[in-house]
Specification:
With about 350 residues, the protein is α/β, with parallel strands linked by helices. It has 3 domains: about 1-60, Alpha-Beta Plaits (2-Layer Sandwich), CATH 3.30.70.2580; about 75-150, GMP Synthetase, Chain A, domain 3 (2-Layer Sandwich), CATH 3.30.300.110; about 170-340, Rossmann fold. It has helices at about 15-25, 110-120, 175-185, 200-210, 225-235, 250, 275-280, 300-315; strands spanning about 1-10, 35, 40, 55-60, 95, 100, 125-135, 140-150, 155-160, 160-165, 190-195, 215-220, 240-245, 260-265, 280-295, 315-320, 325-330, 330-340. Strands 11, 12, 13, 14, 15, 16, 17 and 18 form an 8-stranded mixed sheet that branches. The protein has a 4-stranded antiparallel sheet with strand order 2-3-1-4. Helix 7 links the parallel strand 14 and strand 15. The longest helix has 16 residues, at about 300-315. The termini are far apart. The mean pLDDT is about 95.
Length: about 350
């Protein structure tokens, strides 16, 4: 097949190939040719004069069709302007048969092309959605379908367990899978766990499934989350050991109840409740507190948190080393704090 080609010295071939690929000028349907000390790359839309990163000579050449190859990265399948390719996210989230991706503003107009690429790239994917973040008191995601079809309800599997989730109805984050398991493994066999702001219940449910003698109370004000929690508890066979409370956390915290372990996963607002929640941790009990923290503020935030809960409870506490769950923004992380009440 005749096509325009860029003739390049073999010693510079890989460097030029990467530049052509990054610019969207390298044709993927034709097979490059090697001849003596030269490489011939099939190209399209290459500007003239050539960019500084492109060293070679434009010629006409006959090429063979390229052998189909399975893409190793969805970005290989996306057609966007060359100047935007570096903005394509390297990662995305998979929840059941739904793919979630966040896009910088310049890429949003190309969302359909990105969605179609992910739909074909991720095995078993039914739908690709643009994730615009978690909003409101109920902490539900704002989603926009980019490709595929169907609603936002799916069955997600993590740590050997299945959870029914509705991404537009109730809070759930697949990025916390390891954290759900980590906390569950710390739970003692007969502990009483409080899971505040529980969403569909992965913290409490993972712990109950792992420890057949443990009990838990799970609290959330979102009726959709509570309905999914009940379904998941029944699915996992732990309903008899789980007390489900649909209501406001502040109202629940006015009750005089204590627990051997409390999980509070409210990353943006949880700091408002830390001192109140700490008063419901029994002596020798543990508080798992999740908070978005600027990296520059991490040491001071730990000291402040320890002082706050110590003064609020008139007790001594031990603060473990902060555990970074995952990056949250270019300057901040989601951090897990573990505090143990010593008295």
């Amino acid at each position: 097949m005749p096509a325009q080609a860029l003739a390049v010295e073999r010693s510079k071939g890989e460097q030029v190939r990467r530049a052509l690929s990054a610019g969207g000028w390298l044709r993927g349907d034709l097979q490059p040719q090697r001849e003596a000390e030269m490489v011939y790359f099939p190209v399209q839309g290459l500007p003239t004069p050539l960019p500084d990163t492109i060293v070679g000579t434009l010629v006409d050449r006959e090429f063979e069709p390229a052998t189909p190859r399975k893409a190793r990265d969805y970005r290989e399948l996306v057609e966007v302007p060359g100047e935007l390719r570096d903005l394509l996210p390297s990662s995305f989230d998979i929840v059941g048969d739904i793919v979630l991706i966040r896009l910088p503003d310049p890429l949003v107009p190309h969302g359909k092309a990105i969605g179609e690429a992910l739909l074909s790239f991720v095995p078993g994917c039914r739908k690709v959605a643009l994730d615009r973040g978690v909003e409101g008191v109920a902490r539900v995601r704002s989603l926009e379908t980019l490709a595929g079809s169907g609603g936002s309800s799916t069955v997600h599997r993590e740590n050997g367990l299945s959870f029914r989730v509705d991404l537009e109805g109730a809070y759930f984050s697949p990025r916390l899978a390891r954290e759900h398991q980590r906390v569950a493994e710390l739970v003692g066999p007969q502990e009483n766990l409080l899971d505040l702001f529980c969403g569909v219940g992965p913290f409490a449910l993972t712990a109950l499934r792992l420890h057949p003698e443990a009990r838990a109370v799970a609290v959330d004000l979102n009726p959709a989350a509570i309905a999914l929690l009940r379904e998941n508890a029944s699915r996992l066979g732990v309903s008899s050991r789980l007390e489900i409370v649909e209501g406001d956390a502040e109202a629940f915290l006015r009750e005089n109840r204590t627990f051997s372990r409390v999980v509070m996963n409210l990353p943006r607002e949880g700091y408002k409740y830390a001192t109140s929640v700490a008063q419901h941790v029994m002596p020798a009990g543990t508080l798992h507190h999740y908070e978005v923290v600027r990296r520059a503020d991490l040491p001071q935030r730990g000291r402040d948190l320890l002082q706050e809960v110590s003064e609020a409870t008139s007790s001594r506490w031990t603060l473990g080393a902060p555990h970074v769950v995952h990056p949250y923004s270019p300057s901040s992380d989601l951090v897990a704090w573990t505090l143990v009440r010593d008295d």
